[in-house]
Amino acid sequence: MRPGRLIGKAILALAGFLAVFPLLWTALNALKNNVDIITRAPRLVFTPTLANIGYIIGRDSVLTGLYHSVVACGSAVLIGVVLGLPAAYAVARYPNRWAGDIQFFVLSLRFLPPVAVAIPLMVIWLQVGLYDTLPALIITYSLLTISVIMWLAIPAFQSVPNEIEEAAFVDGYGAYSVFWRIALPVAARSLAGAVAFSFVLVWNEFLIALMLSSSNAKTLPIVASELSQQGMNVPWGILNASVVLLSLPPLLFLGVLSGFLNSVFRQKKT
Amino acid sequence: MSAIVCSHVDKAYGATTVIRDLNLSIEEHEFVVFLGPSGCGKSTLLRMLAGLEDISGGEVSIGGKVVNDLDPGDRGIAMVFQNYALYPHMTIFDNIAFGLRRQKVPAAEIRKRVDAVSRTLGLDPYLGRKPAELSGGQQQRVAIARAMIKTPKVFLFDEPLSNLDAKLRNHMRVEIARLHQSLKTTTVYVTHDQLEAMTLADRIVLLKEGVIEQIGPPAEIYLRPANMFVAGFIGTPNMNFVEVTVGRTGNGWTLTGAGTVLSIEGRGFHLRHGDRAVLGIRPPDLKTAGAAGILQGTADLIEFHGNDALVTFGSGGKEISALVPARECPALNAPVRYTFEEEAIHLFDATSGASLRKQ
What we know:
CATH superfamily of the largest domain in chain B: P-loop containing nucleotide triphosphate hydrolases
Number of strands of chain B: 20
CATH class of the largest domain in chain A: Mainly Alpha
Oligomer: heterodimer
CATH class of the largest domain in chain B: Alpha Beta
Largest sheet of chain B: 6 strands, mixed
Order of helices and strands of chain A: HHHHHHHHHHHH
Distance between the termini of chain B: 27 Å
Strand content of chain B: 35-45%
Number of domains of chain B: 2
Radius of gyration of chain A: 23 Å
Number of helices of chain A: 12
CATH architecture of the largest domain in chain A: Orthogonal Bundle
């Protein structure tokens, strides 16, 4: 093998290792007793324990946090899909003189430092009387999901060849049917990426959730972070277990989504 | 009754006018080709017939019904797009059946009609596949099948062959011609390829900058071009143009230019003494001559075509090409002399470019 290729492969392997190892280590640590974690030499061979995971799952606050996260993120993504996709299609296919501004505005929501958004939002929800409730979180997260989905879906819809939609018009279909039967399915792959990305974004969201909830609407990231605030003795195993719990839903979501896409788009062989 | 009538049709995008006061009537069963250089408005005009572009002014009717405000699906047309525009997420069967499903045709009849159409076009083995699994030629056939199955009043083709390689293009051209012979559906076909236009069309509509330059059967367009643009656009290799001055003689006319004086009877043309005109002569109409050649010069470029050779020579400071049988091909830089018949010449007004031929 030529040295260039060898170096390339080595760099690739290193990058892969850097990406995968922390995840693997976290998963392993979730199964370790604290003594096995805080040793000087990292231990690969140890007696696994389910105590950490059991502790996590057994705690009411974690389960409530999980419930809040699923409801808030699920609803926000749903709202993002229902409102964001048609909006993105409208901007992509029927641009008016505001189309450029709309795109910029949507994107600018992501430019702002989250703190700059979070503080006014907190005040608004306090005044409306919805502070520390799930509806407030859902609506706030919907702003994020709508903007991210629109931002990613506009180019996805633009990349659907115009002629395909025109052919459907010639076949007698109206604008709404063309959206449902042509634009959505043809752009589905990229759109699914947009939806998944928006889900991951709000699922991992910390700052806004922290500022919009004090006790009744805490999401899983907040609850998980609180686990580390229990005195000097950091319960590493429990923390790692909560991280695993936190990472599973997005993975499941992505898995289900890509499985669904594969089943839809698998090429039929005759 | 005419299948399609355009009267005083305009198309403008903002301040830019693309089509100006266009009048055209297409007969039932006719195969009409819109031909012209890119940007001449031919595709725009076709898309206006299809309902994919708004009509800025004037009136378009299809089958005796004004369609200005009708949706594409209600105009009784079917269209074949340049890049096929198949629905990539549907099987070939669904692609073909999509339009019929909209018309709420019963499933059994859809199956029957798809089978019939796909048999005609040799598509039956592929009905279960997705478009991406088919070759370009097969995809184009699916696009044609999708158009055929609706039994439309009018077929619209938008440069359907330009994405295919040369060999397949010839093959599909013949197929489209056969299809029109058997179906007899009124067809409007847009192309920039004059060979396609010449071979397929009953009539050619030659467009330039949104204005019709000439309408007529291919032979008429070729033999009696209405102006210099048409003459230069149609025919390969391109027509030679020579600026000449018209002079009156006792029993005829002289044309002076390009280092030569040509005497003609000039009965077929409107001529006036002292006028400046442009003489057009097609390269194949130039014949190798002996000492009595009308045009002479030195062969400075020779392109071998197989049966023929294209000889380019300078005459009176003007580049002129002659298409001669390969065996008469001169050596490079050899002196050449060519002559031609008076019937072969075209004369155009030097300023307007309009043909001086008497109608």
